Amino acid sequence: MESEFSWSRPDASLVTLRRLELLAGVALAVVVPESRALLWVGGARHDLVVRRVLVMGAALVVVVFLEALLRRQVRHRGYVETADAIVVTRGALFRSTTVIPYGRIQFLSVSAGPLARYLGLSTLRIGSASRSSLESIRGMRSEDVESVRVRLERRAQEKMRSL
Q1: pTM score > 0.70 for this model?
Q2: Of residues 48 and 20, more confidently modeled
Q3: HEC per residue, the chain
Q4: Could you give the number of structural domains in the chain?
Q5: Has residue 30 been placed in a domain?
Q6: Same domain for 138 and 62?
Q7: In angstroms, rounded to a whole number, what is the distance separating the alpha carbons of residues 40 and 104?
Q8: Which residues contact 158 (CB under 8 A, 6 or more apart)?
Q9: Handedness of CA 71, 137, 116, 155 (dihedral sign)
Q10: Cβ distance 121 to 127 under 8 Å?
């Protein structure tokens, strides 16, 4: 497969998007509650202040680890359009490769949240005839995603007609 087809990888802006999502989650879950509590307690109870500083330090260590992990996750995402199917791969720790024959594609949808739109990214979702098969290609440039969607739709219709 690797000789005649080339893998399409996500745009580099996907790392920025994932980083912003990570930082927003950590800020909402840890930093905001702990910093509010620090201001509220003041200097009266040093044991609580030390505990909260340790929690925020641990959150920083987790962010650094997850930053390295998300870079690997983005690097291991990709898709390739073969003659008979689209192959989607993802995962840094737990790798997954999904092969969706064009004739099994039921629907294609394009979505983009506010941060993704700001960075010019979109996600293409591919649903197949299998009940549990919903695959997504995240991190595509917004100007490219529509041409890929149209191409996949055309190939799916051609395969369905030939059946």
Answers
A1: yes
A2: 20
A3: CCCCCCCECCCCHHHHHHHHHHHHHHHHHHHHHHHHHHHHHCCCCHHHHHHHHHHHHHHHHHHHHHHHHHHHHHHCCEEEECCCEEEEEECCCCCEEEEEEHHHEEEEEEECCHHHHHHCEEEEEEEECCCCCEEEEEEEEHHHHHHHHHHHHHHHHHHHHHC
A4: 2
A5: yes
A6: no
A7: 58
A8: 102
A9: positive
A10: no
pLDDT digits (tens, 9 = 90+) for 146-160: 999 999 999 999 988
Confidence at residue 31, expressed as pLDDT on a 0 to 100 scale: 66
Residue 4 falls inside a structural domain: no
Joined together, the tokens standing for residue 92 give 């840094």
The pLDDT confidence band at residue 1, using thresholds 50, 70 and 90, is very low
Contacts of 138 (CB under 8 A, 6+ apart): 10, 14, 77, 121, 123
Backbone angles phi, psi at 115, to 5 degrees: -65, -40
- pLDDT tens digits along 80-108: 999 999 999 998 889 999 999 999 999 99
| Domain hosting residue 17, numbered range | 13-74
Token pair listed for 139? 């991190």
Region at 43 (left for phi over 0; alpha for psi -120 to 50; beta for the rest): alpha
Q: Tell me how long the chain is.
A: 163
Query: Which residue shows structure tokens 């509220």?
Result: 40
